[in-house]
Each structure stands twice: as C-alpha cells, then as structure tokens.
Specification:
- The complex is a heterotrimer of chains A (520), B (238) and C (268).
- Chain A is 58% helix and 14% strand.
- Chain A has 520 residues and is of the alpha+beta class.
- Chain A folds into four domains: 39 residues; 109 residues, SH3 type barrels, CATH 2.30.30.100; 57 residues; 191 residues, MetI-like (MetI-like fold).
- In chain A, the strands form four sheets. In chain A, strands 4-3-2-1-5 form a five-stranded antiparallel sheet, with no helix packed on it. A five-stranded antiparallel sheet of chain A has the order 9-8-7-6-10. A two-stranded antiparallel ribbon of chain A has the order 11-12.
- The radius of gyration of chain A is 31 Å and the shape is flat.
- The mean pLDDT of chain A is 80.
- Chain B is mostly helical.
- The mean pLDDT of chain B is 87.
- With 268 residues, chain C is of the alpha/beta class.
- Chain C has a domain of 68 residues.
- Chain C has ten helices and ten strands.
- The longest helix of chain C is centred in the middle third of the chain and has 14 residues.
- In chain C, 49% of the residues are buried.
- The mean pLDDT of chain C is 88.
- Classes of the chains: A alpha+beta (520), B mainly alpha (238), C alpha/beta (268).
- Chains in contact: A-C, B-C.
- At the A-C interface, helix 9, helix 10 and helix 13 of A face helix 2, helix 3 and helix 6 of C.
- Chain A: One of its GO terms (cellular component) is plasma membrane.
- Chain A: Pfam families: BPD_transp_1.
- Chain A: It is a multi-pass membrane protein.
Chain lengths: 520, 238, 268
C-alpha cells in the first residue's frame, strides 16, 4: 500500500522536489556570486578601458541650429537620457550633461580628437591643433612626441636641481635656524647666496619649459592652450587599434597601481591605499599569529579540563561575533588614547602636546585588527591541534621527549595547516574590514607612506590609506561623474584581487604543509 | 614431486625447529636400524652380550619417541602449523609410533638370543638372517625415502614387502615341518614363531611409514589400498 | 640419556633477580576510582620475549605503560608498588622520566612515524638526547635501521617522508626509532594488529632477532602470536595476573582453568 503523503506526491516526486529545491537555491547562490564578480569586474575594468570620443550633435531648445560636442557617451538602454561627458571652452576639463535620447541628432566617432590626460589627474577632450615652441610658433602636430621628450628632459633637470642641490641647502639652513645662527653670519649668507643661485636656475628652466605648449580646439572651434609639461599622455582614442587600446589600458592599470590618488580620489592611482592595506595586514599577521597560536596551545594542551577553561573557550568563540565597530571604538579608546598616550608621556614627552603614538596610526590599526581576528586564529589553531593523532604524541613521549619538546617538534608541524587556515581567515577578514579602521588610523588621504627612506624607515605611528576606506570615500563623496564612479569599482576589483591573492598564497602554503605533514 | 620445504618460513626459528624434528626422526630411525643390524649379528654368531645391549637400547628408542612426540605437541601448540607443515608433524607423530614398534619387535627377536632359545636348525637361522637382511634394506629404504621425501623410493620399499611376506610364509611352512619333527619344547618353538612374525611385522611397519611419506608429499591417504591403486592414485594426481 | 631437543627456557619460578629485566612488586593502579591493576607481582626475564595476553581492558597495556611511566600522561591515574628496572624503582619521584623512556622503548598499535623524513624519524630520540654530530647520527641511524631489518629497503631514500613507507615498513621504522636509543627493554603494544599476516610474521621474526639485544615485552590480542613469538606468557584477567609461565607450558598444559578456557576459546 502506498502511504498517503503530503500534497499527494509519491516518494519519487517528493525526492525530486527536494532535489530541485536545493538545486534551485544553490543556483541562486551561484548567480549572486557570479553577478557580484561580473559587476565588479566589468565596472572596474571599464575604468581602464579608453572611452571612445564622439562628435555629438544636439538639438538646442531655443534655436533650430544644433550644437556639436566632443564627448564620451554613456548610453544606458534602460533610461531615457543619454549621459555625455564633454569638454568645451567653458569647461575645458570636462563636465557632464544629460540629454534626451531624441535630441541627439547625430553621433559619429571623432577621429581627430584626443583624450589628453594631465599630470594632475584631469583630462581634456579636444582636437589637438598645433604645438607651440620657443623657436617657431606653429609646429606640426607630429612634433609633439619630440617636444614631449624635450620637456621631460627639462623636468628631469629641474628635479635633479631640486633634490640634489636645493634640498641639502634648505636642510642646512633649517639647521642654522635651530642653532639660532644669526641671519648675517658669513656661513649662512654664503648658503643663502647658493640657494638663490640654484633657485634662479630652476626658475629659468621652468620658464623655458612653459614655452612649450599645445594648442587644442574644441568642437565649436574655440581653442585652448595646454602647457606640454602638464600633459601625461595624448591618446587619439578613435584611431587606436584594439592592440593599442590594450596598451593604453595596461598603462592605465600601471598608473592605477603605482600612483597616488588625484582630484580627491577620483583619478590617478591607489598605490598608497594598496600599500597601506597590505602593510597593515602584514603587521597584523605578525602580531596575531604568535598570540593566537600560543593561546590555542595553552587551551588545548595545558589548560586543565575545568569549567573555567570551557568558559574561556566559549567566550573566545563569542568574541568572533562581536561587531567590528566595537573593536574600532575599543582600539581608539584603549590603544590610541590610553596606551598611546602613556607611551607618548613616557618616551616622546619632548614633542608633546602634539601626539606621536597617541593618535591613530597604522600600528594601532594593525593591533586592533589583530584583536578582532584573534578568535578566528585561536579557534582554527585549536581545531588543528585537536587533529594531531594521540598516537604521535605518545610516540614522542615514549622516546623521552618532554611536553614542550613534543609540542614544538611534533604537534606544531602537524597542526600547521590548521594554523594556516586560521591565519588565512584572519587575513581575509582584516583586508576587507573598514569600519574599525576609520577610527584607528585609516584616512582617505595620507600625505606619506608608512615606509620611507627616513629613519626609522617603518613609521608605525603614521596614518595610512586603505582600499576599503578609499572605496567608502569614493562611494559617498566623489560620485560626480561616470568615470570616477568606475574608479570606485576599480578599487573594489583591486581589493578583491588582493584578498584573493593573499588567500591563494595562504592556501598554497597550507596545501604544501598538509602534503608534507599529513600525506607524506 | 612436491617436497615439503622446511627452510623457507619467514620465521627462522620455525625452520630450525622443523629441521631438528625431522633430523631427530632420522636419528631415531638410524638407531633402530643399528639395533636390527646388531640383532642379526647376534643371531648369526649367537652373541648374547650384544643381544643384551640391544634389549637395553630399546629404552633409548622409547625415550626418543616420547621426546619427539612432546616436540610435535609443542610445535602444534606454539606454531599452529598448516598444510605441508601440519602433514609433516602428523606424519612424524605417527611414523615414530611405527618406528618405536619396530624397536619393540627387534627387542623381541634379540630376546631369543639372550634367552638362548635360537632354533637349532641352521636352515631356519640362516633364513631368519636372510629375511632380516631384507628387512634392514627395507628399513634403510624407508628412512631414506622419508629423509628425501621421495615417494618413488617409498613405493619401491612398499613393493619389497611382498617378497618378505612370501619368504616369511615359506619359512613358516618349513618351521611347522620342523616342529612336527621335534615336538618337545613347544614353548621355545612358539618364541621362534613370534620372532619370525616380528620380522614380518617390521616389514609391515616400514610399509606404514612409506604410506605416511606418500601422504606427506602428496597429501593423499594411501593406507589400506593395494599397490596398484596407490599407483593409480598417484598418477591421477600427477 | 639422549636429549634430542634443547630447551633453554627456565620455569618462571627459577628466575633469579640477575636474569630479571623488569621486576614488578605489588603494583596497584587506579584510573580515578577504577582499580585497573591489582597486586601485580612478576619478574620479566632478560633477553627474552614475554607476552601479555588477556581480554580487552584487562590491564595488560596499562601494565606496560607502567614500565615507561606513560600512564603519567593520563589524568586521574594513581599507582603504588614497585617497578624495578636496572635495580631502581622507577615509580620513585626522583626518577628522570625522559631518561627512563629513552631506556625503555615503546612501539604502539598503529605505526606512528612522525611526519618527517625517515632519517629524521630515527634521529628524533637521539636529537632529544642532545646528539648533534652528524656522523654519530648517521652511524646510529644506519645501525638502528639495520637492526630493524629496514636498512636495505630504505637506504636509497633516507630523506623521503616516512609516510611513503608501507604499513609494515612504518612499523619497522618505529621500531628502529626506538632501537636508536639502545633501549634495555622494548615494549610492544599490539605491534601487528594493524598489519597484514605476512608483515606480521616479518615483525615477529624481527623480535626473535632483537631479543639478543634487549628484553621484549609484547601485549597482544592474538593468542597464536603470543604462542609463536614469546618465551614466557602472562595471562591477565580483570586486572589480575592469573597465570604466568613459560609459553611451552602455558600453551600445552596451563595450570588454571581460567587460562585454559581463554586459550582454548571457551571464555564465557
């Protein structure tokens, strides 16, 4: 007799229903994952890809005559309007315009126009017309490459003068200041004279450099002059072949990875943020690994099996669930103000009241993240330690090893994959965390990297930039145009890549350890 | 021919134990053979002292049987022999019973000399010696077949028993005639008859041992079958 | 009278203390409230193989753990009585447990090589003892591996991970590891229960050759194995030593009915 079942299904149907349901939800999960990746990759990748420039004719409302603009066109099929990013004489560095789709009369690729990127992160969309040099006014456009090289040479000379001659003199002068040397002391006067001489040279060179200029025209025929020294690159986007577009994109990526942000985090690169993120995670790993491992060893190997141990274990697991902002507040209140303040009054009392360690900085950020990720490491390590076969430990004891020798020589190597798992999770968590970092040291713009050539090379007290914070900042303050919004996505993409790379490295390491210690 | 390889076990001690066991059987066999030789000599030369020694020596053979039996028991208990090893142990355990019995039969013949009850007839005496020599050959062949685990040799020995049987029958008939002639001392005649019977029995014991050898190498029980069917059985197996 | 078979196994009662490697006197052991070993007194003869047999949980493994004080690792274990090795009571507080364990080697049920190379596995104990000279280590490793009849199989791959060896090889490696410290006593806790029958025979044969150098105490569930390898056998039941005799006697004519029932498979 067939048993009556819910909603009149037989056993086979019921089973396939369950299978379909589970498969359905797995599918939804997959779609969600893939769409996150695709969105981030597509929008982030678009940041690097050169946008074609169009000559767009738009019907004006008041007159019958139409207006032509050189613009990047962002055409979203779902919406009525077309978004144009254009430049004209009034707004040489670009502005945005929303126009009705119907009012666009014609759209043609502007072959002659170029995307001129400037050193300060802005860009100009225009038709390069001619090059102005001190020798002759109207040079052919083909001269541009040569002229740019010449200007680069001049810039190099100026930099050399600045760093090799002016900077030491400036330092010497400030030393005189510190020692209260009289303003008319002969040595000082000599220095000042030297300083003036070099400064004159620099000024001359700069004046010479400024004479090299590029004249460009906008769509309405108005011209605009750009000093060649300001130009980073000139790309005739319409004429680029696919390969050249790739080259442009790659050079964009390199700039993105190696340069500082410009124009309030809407342009340029994210190098300081990338560097800050990796360095913070690195310092955090150095702090959290020994702490977590030692704590886990105590809990699993030494702690007596009492209620207190159980309580400790439970609270460690619960610590993992505390909201991260709480850790941020704790870090600010305890590490920065209390601990940092005490350190300042003990070691850096000469610079007070301006704080050294008593203000948010990369070390406090790393320490806060270490506290935040400590439970993860402890739990994973304990798990790894528990997996060490009792027989191996007994074997070690039976050969005359003491407890500590057994732990160091046998238990830890075998538990190392477990420890690595904990560290991986900790790294992934710390790299993606934003909220607590904003309280204890991450800023949207830091003037200097935490590592430089100045003693003591690693400046743990400095504030730093962080990719997550940069994304947050881009998302709320800088979404003024289409391109800079995609910089946020590019930063997201980079953050994803960083987390993936860190994870993959750790997973590879773990696999190697596991292979070595478990499978042989 | 499948030999039981004694020295190929993983356990070297087990090898040594089996080897020792087999050698001890051969030692025992050699001892019994020597007893037979001595007895025949005693009969031939009416050498009572030698016969006395044979009778005493039988104790040694008895003790050997007990020791070998104990060792077999010990090996079974400790080593749990299987297959060819098990057959070897069982074979030895049974063969030594037969060998010990051979010793007893020899002792009975020797006692004929010690009690000075040898028949006066030279014909009977020399016939006894003749059968005795055949029996010695048979014993030698038997122990040899056991040592080499050679079933062909064993069957050869098996065949020899028929001759001994026929000679024994002849001698019995002759002796009965003699008894009819000289009717006094019936008791002495009976002793002679027993001794003759003992000689024949030794041959049968040899046959038994040969059957064990076939069992050892072939794993087939050939007891209580005729020579022809033994051949048949062996051929079936090969 | 002629003796055909030599027997150099003395009855237990005739063992002198000079011939004794481990002497146990009135040993009692508790795990918490549970009385695991009850008044054990026995002499384990030198350079012989002694097997301890009995049902699971009868205390035989616990007893050999007493010989290297491995029971100290377990919480709630308490004991009294004496275990005398080398003329010293190892249960005394003054005994250096590390040194004791170096002198009393132990091999466990499952092969437990450390996740290192073969070479490092054998060196483990020596390095703990502070041997650092490479040449000494090399010599000791070769010697130990030879004694464990493993040298020829692994001499070309000493630095391969020990996990690549087969089960039987691993168990021999573990034996070599114990032998590297030149122990006086080698404790084997069901050393072959995880191995196939043929490998088991190889390990047993190894024991036979090792007893020239050290005293072997083996715990086994396999009665046949106890019969095969041991010179003496002790039968335990519920923490008590029921019968202790040379194996020939115990397996042919046991004195106690309990022993007889156990070894003949009549155990209730």
């Amino acid at each position: 007799m067939v048993k009556p079942s819910f909603s009149g299904l037989n056993a086979v149907q019921r089973q396939s229903l369950v299978i379909s349901l589970t498969a359905f939800f797995t599918g939804i999960l997959l779609i969600a994952l893939v769409s996150v990746l695709v969105l981030i990759t597509a929008r982030g990748g678009a940041y690097f890809w050169p946008e074609p420039i169009f000559a767009v004719s738009i019907k004006s409302d008041n007159a019958q005559q139409s207006k032509t603009l050189l613009a990047n066109v962002f055409d979203d099929d779902a919406q009525q309007e077309v978004r144009l990013k254009y430049a004209d004489a009034g707004n040489p560095y670009g502005t945005q315009l929303l126009v009705e789709r119907e009012s666009v009369e014609s759209l043609s690729v502007a072959l002659d126009s170029a995307q001129i990127k400037l050193n300060d992160g802005r860009q100009v969309l225009a038709i390069p017309d001619h090059v102005i040099t001190p020798e002759g006014t109207n040079n052919q456009l083909s001269e541009l490459t040569r002229v740019m090289q010449k200007v680069a040479l001049l810039s190099e000379k100026i930099t050399t003068l600045n760093t090799q001659f002016l900077a030491p003199i400036h330092e010497a002068l400030s030393r005189f200041d510190n020692r209260d040397v009289a303003a008319d002391a002969p040595a000082r006067e000599k220095r000042v004279a030297e300083f003036n001489q070099y400064q004159q040279q620099v000024l001359n060179l700069e004046r010479q450099r400024e004479q090299y200029r590029l004249a460009v025209k906008f769509a309405d025929g108005q011209s605009f002059i750009i000093p060649v020294s300001n130009i980073q690159s000139v790309d005739f986007v319409g004429r680029l072949s696919l390969l050249e577009k790739w080259q442009v994109a790659i050079s964009e990526v390199i700039i993105f990875l190696t340069e500082s942000p410009k124009q309030a985090n809407t342009s340029g690169g994210v190098f300081p943020a990338l560097f800050g993120t990796v360095l913070m995670v690195f310092i955090m790993t150095i702090i959290v690994t020994p702490f977590g491992v030692l704590a886990a060893i105590y809990l699993s190997e030494y702690a007596p099996n009492t209620a207190l141990t159980t309580v400790i274990r439970v609270s460690v697991s619960n610590m993992a669930g505390v909201p991260s902002i709480v850790y941020g507040v704790f870090g600010l209140g305890f590490f920065v103000y209390t601990l940092g303040g005490s350190i300042d009054s003990l070691l850096f009392s000469d610079t007070l009241p301006s704080p050294t360690m008593g203000s948010p900085g990369i070390f406090w950020a790393a320490l806060t993240m270490a506290i935040l990720t400590l439970p993860v490491v402890i739990v994973a390590t304990e798990e790894g330690l528990r997996r060490v076969p009792e027989g191996l430990k007994a074997g070690s004891y039976a050969l005359g090893a003491t407890k500590i020798e057994t732990i160091v020589r046998t238990v830890l190597p075998i538990a190392s994959p477990g420890i690595m798992t904990g560290v991986i999770l900790a790294i992934a968590r710390a790299a993606g965390e934003v909220a607590p970092l904003m309280l204890v040291g991450a800023v949207k713009f830091a003037p200097a990297l935490p590592i430089d050539g100045e003693f003591p090379f690693l400046h743990l007290d400095r504030q730093f930039m962080h990719l997550g914070v940069l994304i947050y900042d881009s998302a709320f303050h800088s979404q003024t145009d289409a391109k800079s919004a995609s910089m946020m996505f590019a930063a997201c993409l980079l953050l994803l890549v960083v987390v993936f790379v860190l994870n993959i490295l750790a997973v590879l390491l773990r696999t190697r350890l596991r292979k070595r210690y478990l499978e042989g | 021919m499948r030999q039981v390889a004694l020295n190929t076990h993983i356990s070297a001690t087990f090898n040594v134990e089996l080897e020792n066991l087999r050698n001890s059987v051969l030692t025992m066999g050699g001892e019994v053979e020597q007893q037979m030789v001595d007895t025949l000599y005693a009969i031939k030369h009416n050498h009572a002292a030698l016969a006395e020694k044979v009778v005493l020596n039988d104790l040694k053979i008895n003790s050997m049987e007990i020791q070998i039996d104990e060792e077999c028991l010990r090996i079974i208990a400790k080593r749990h022999p299987t297959a060819s090893d098990l057959r070897l142990i069982m074979t030895i355990s049974k063969a030594i019973t037969d060998i010990e019995r051979m010793g007893d039969e020899i002792e009975r013949i020797a006692k004929l000399v010690t009690r000075n009850k040898l028949p006066s007839s030279d014909t009977i005496k020399s016939s006894m010696v003749l059968i005795g020599e055949r029996v010695i050959d048979m014993m030698r062949g038997t122990f040899d077949a056991f040592a080499r685990q050679d079933e062909e040799a064993a069957l050869e020995v098996y065949r020899q028993d028929n001759q001994i049987d026929s000679e024994y029958k002849r001698l019995i008939t002759y002796t009965t005639h003699e008894m009819e002639k000289i009717t006094e001392d019936m008791q002495d005649w009976l002793d002679v008859l027993w001794a003759l019977r003992s000689l024949e029995r030794i041959g049968d014991r040899c046959k038994n041992v040969c059957e064990y050898v076939v069992y050892l190498t072939r794993g087939t029980d050939v007891r209580h079958t005729s020579l022809e069917s033994i051949h048949q059985k062996i051929e079936d197996l090969t | 009278m002629l003796t055909l078979f030599k027997n150099n196994i003395k009855p237990v009662s005739e063992l002198t203390s000079e011939q004794t490697a481990v002497e146990v006197k009135d040993l009692n052991l508790w795990f918490g409230e549970k009385h695991v070993l009850k008044d054990i007194t026995m002499r384990i003869p030198e350079n012989k193989v002694t097997a301890l047999i009995g049902q699971s949980g009868c205390g035989k493994s616990t007893l050999i753990n007493c010989f290297n004080r491995l029971n100290d690792l377990y919480d709630g274990c308490s004991y009294n009585g004496e275990v005398i090795i080398d003329g010293k009571n190892i249960n005394s507080k003054k005994v250096n447990v590390s040194r004791l364990r170096a002198k009393v080697g132990m091999v466990f049920q499952r092969p437990n090589p450390f996740p290192m190379s073969i070479y490092e596995n054998v060196c483990y104990g020596l390095k703990l003892q502070g041997v650092k000279v490479r040449r000494h280590l090399d010599d000791a490793v070769e010697k130990a591996l030879r004694q464990a009849a493993l040298w020829d199989e692994v001499k070309d791959r000493l630095f391969d991970p020990a996990m690549t060896l087969s089960g039987g090889q691993q168990q021999r490696l573990v034996i070599a590891r114990a032998l590297s410290l030149k122990p006086k006593v080698l404790l084997l806790d069901e050393p072959t229960s995880a191995l196939d029958p043929l490998t088991t025979l190889f390990i047993e044969e190894l024991m036979e050759s090792l007893k020239k150098q050290c005293t072997i105490v083996i715990v086994t569930h396999n009665m046949q194995q106890a019969a095969r390898v041991s010179d003496y056998t002790a039968f335990f039941h519920q923490g008590k030593l029921v019968e202790y005799a040379d194996s020939d006697t115990l397996f042919t004519m046991p004195e106690k009915k309990q022993t007889e029932d156990y070894i003949t498979g009549r155990y209730g």
